[in-house]
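This section describes the prediction task in plain terms. A model, or a person checking by hand, is given the sequence of a single protein chain and must write out its three-dimensional structure as a string of tokens. No templates, partner chains or ligands are provided. The sample shown here is typical of the held-out split.
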Amino acid sequence: MLRSLGSIVKCIVLRNVARCGECLHSCAPETTPHPIHIKLFATKNVMPSIHRAPVSPKVLASLDLGFFKPLIAWTFEPISKPIEPVLGGWDEIDGLPEHLTAFFQADPNPFNSRFGSGSSAAVCKGYIDFNGMTYVVAAKERYFGGESSQDVMLEEFAGKISREVKVLRRLKHPNIVNYLGVALGVPRHGHNQLSIITSVCDRGGLPSYVSHAPNCQRLSLALDIAHALEYLHENNIVHGQLKPRNISITNSGAGVKAVLCDFSCARIIGDDGFVPWSSKDGSYRYTPQEIARPSDSNPVYVSKEGDIYAFAFVALFILSGKEALECDGRINVWDVSYRLLNGERPLRKDHEGSDLTDVVWSLLESCWSPEATKRPSAASVVSTLTSLPTVRGV
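The expected answer:
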């Protein structure tokens, strides 16, 4: 029988915290009579537990999840044709179940333990106690807020988090955030908050990283994101909200890698449970005209071509350190969005960077083409970037 949330959430103060010398997010050591040794990752590499025991619909149905309850069967339905995992880059916690409530502990200082936050969600530090070890993890919690009625807010929240979980639990790739499971969090508005638990990306977000590491291997980071898109698109999954703030950086071997995060707008092509694109979910600077300004009133869905369009502007930011149409370090978001949607494009003279060669600039131009059919596939983008001498180490 599962214990109640109140009985499993303990106030943790840490001593002798295991730190990575490069880590941007470490816990401050404090005195406690019962020190806990924290590790960011498992102590050894094991094969990913892709076929872990799924969350029991019976168990979830017994929990007070409000508007999420009708979506349980759809979210956690058995995966009849599992997506082939791409191994490497993530240490796994062997045997960890997908339903983590009994093993998850929220950080006792939620306002001081955020890895990042956006307009609709925050990613906070948490802990998984499992098989005698404690692991630092990231817990994504959605906000309640806005002008809608409480019932509408809760229903929208439940839909968003269920769709994100449905996508994430199918994926295993070194350049995609590592999904561990779900856990009940802090009760809000009379309902238990459901958190998405992932591994920690210990070098922070992409914008902060590239600004503090000007000599980083920028082309390799762009290639990482292209690899992630290739994996998604080959499996008929669209990310739907690709932008610099949805990319994190983590240590990988002797270097770092880029990791695609935030699948709240993602879509499995052919699954009717996913909703059309909404202006509330997207960022116009990274949304092509055929989605942001459809030619008719029919519902519009995020697409592979839309991901490629967004990739062009993300890659431009990575390679030059500047956003599209940025002026003197300032961006008027609505002005830039309007200009891009009306066909204006960045000028090469405004973006410096040793990696912005003729081949790369031509690739970006093809990716941000106003005509969706003229944009290359993710596989083609990977092929072009992989062939460059700087990526091949020549």
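For orientation: The longest helix spans residues 150-168.
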